[in-house]
Amino acid sequence: MDKFMKEAIKEAKKGRDEGGLPIGAVLVKNGKIIGRGHNKRVQEDDPVLHAEIDCFRNAGRLGSFKGTVLYSTLQPCYMCSGAAVQFGVKKVVVGESENYTGTEDFLESRGIQVVDLDLEECKRMMGDFVDSNPELWKEDTGDI
Amino acid sequence: MDKFMKEAIKEAKKGRDEGGLPIGAVLVKNGKIIGRGHNKRVQEDDPVLHAEIDCFRNAGRLGSFKGTVLYSTLQPCYMCSGAAVQFGVKKVVVGESENYTGTEDFLESRGIQVVDLDLEECKRMMGDFVDSNPELWKEDTGDI
To answer: In this structure, are residues B40 and B46 in contact, taking their beta carbons and an 8 Å threshold?
Structure first.
């Protein structure tokens, strides 16, 4: 498997083990991980701490994220996709887009390449969480 | 002036007085402010802490932000606009869109009403900052 997605999955598992949502992300620049994070919405009681936001945050103030590649275990929501657009990310690689979808067109319309690895491991990890915690998940998707 | 925009301007001034970017936001639900914040990117060395993100964060985990109105002293960037879309905000009221623009169509295409108050006070406050700190501002716009 893609080595960067493997790291994003590690992050997702950290989140799950903390009692939070199993979604992880890493940000890659010139072949190196410059930021990593996972969804901490439950853990920090913070509605904006999605995995990708946590990841950008941990990457810190680089000055520029232009040309970076964002790996996420799940298709990013609109906030996180908007962050990718705003920060000049050139490519978004997702583990799956079965448990969340709908932002691909937005990303592509802003010139960001989207690659869906369609990984069983990611689908199962997220699917199990959604099945066990439907209300928590609805908070993230805004469906509540 | 609109009483909620007045509060967003107060937040922006707090940010400016802390040495940060003069951008403020408040989130309103049923006529009451449920969250407020200002850009803390410089103060907390955090690339995602734009005013609107700080505002959502301070509103906390409501379960739902559906039907809220977001007031911001400046037209929100893609990350913050994406957050408004994701969280089901129904209307975005901005103090100005002269110092930043471009996300109106995205918001409107997702069914969010955008109202631009085109306020001299907001334009001057932000314009003065951009003139004095062009590099800091470029970090936020992704132009660096």
So the answer is: yes
pTM, two decimals, is: 0.95
- Interface pTM (ipTM) of the complex? 0.94
Cα A29 to Cα B134: distance, rounded to the nearest angstrom: 25
Residue partners of B76: CB distance under 8 A and separation at least 6: B50, B52, B70, B84, B92, B94, B103, B107
A67 burial type by CB count under 10 A (0-12 exposed, 13-18 middle, 19+ buried): exposed
Q: Do B144 and A64 touch (CB under 8 A)?
A: yes
Task: Count Cα neighbours of B23 within 13 Å in the Cβ-side half-sphere.
Answer: 29
* Active site (annotated) includes residue B52: yes
Block means of pLDDT (10 residues each) for chain A, 144 residues, are: 95 97 97 96 94 96 87 98 96 97 96 98 97 84 62
> Which residue in B47, B85, B88 is closest to A61 by CB distance?
B47
Complete edge-to-edge strand list for the sheet that includes strand A24-29? A32-38, A24-29, A69-72, A91-94, A113-116
Which of B7, B18, B52, B120 is catalytic? The answer is B52
Q: Evaluate whether B7 touches B25 at the Cβ level (below 8 Å).
A: no
Q: Which residues from chain A sit within 8 angstroms of residue B47, using beta carbons?
A: 56-57, 59-62, 65, 87
CA A6-A11-A13 angle, to 5 degrees, is: 95
Rounded (10°) CA dihedral A30, A31, A34, A38: 140
Whose structure tokens read 């009451």?
A: B32
